[in-house]
Every structure is written in C-alpha cells, then in structure tokens.
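Re: the 117-residue chain
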Amino acid sequence: MKRGDIYLVNFGKKYNSEFGKVRPALIIQNDVANRNIDKVFFKGVTLIPLSTALSGGDLRVLLAKRDQLEKESEVCVNELCTLDLSRIYLEQRLTTLTESELKELEFKLQKHLGFRV
C-alpha cells in the first residue's frame, strides 16, 4: 500500500452526509506510515473516497476509467478521513494516481485545509 494507490474500502453504513458502502478510495497517508503500519498499535489509514457521481469543481479530481477502476470517478478531496486498516481490501490495487493527478490532488487538498498555496 502506497500513497496514491486506490483500493476498495468498506465505509460501512452511510450516516447522514458521510460516504457509505464499499467503494474505491485513495490512500493519501505518507509512505513512512504505510510501511510501518504493521509495527504500530493504531492501524489507522488516511484516505479519500471516490465517487462516480461526477460534479467537478475545486474539491474534486477527475480520474479516467483504467486498470481495475471500472468507471470514471472523482476523488472527493473534502471527504478526507482515517479508517482502520482492516476496512481496506488490500488484495487488489485498482489503480495508482499519475504524477500530475497527485500534484492536482495535493494542491486542492492544501486549499481545502486552508494551507497557503
């Protein structure tokens, strides 16, 4: 599991405006934490869910259908969350972001979190 990889993730039951069900999600957590997750007690992974309900805008990054990502999707930057490692289906990586997609995501994430860009 590496930053920029997309896997299926079980978000559980939908609650109000939160994402629910099993859906693709982007691993955004840094690779040092990813490499050492088996060595720590707290096995939280920071990720961002994807949606096929395309809306565009400053808080979405469009991804084309490719590899095992079956539909055109958007990374929902404003839905950043941390879930337990056990919710991630690590058996099959769906795809990985390109360098340009990762740069766009980082720019939009900084903007969303109020960091100077």
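The first helix runs from residue 31 to 36.
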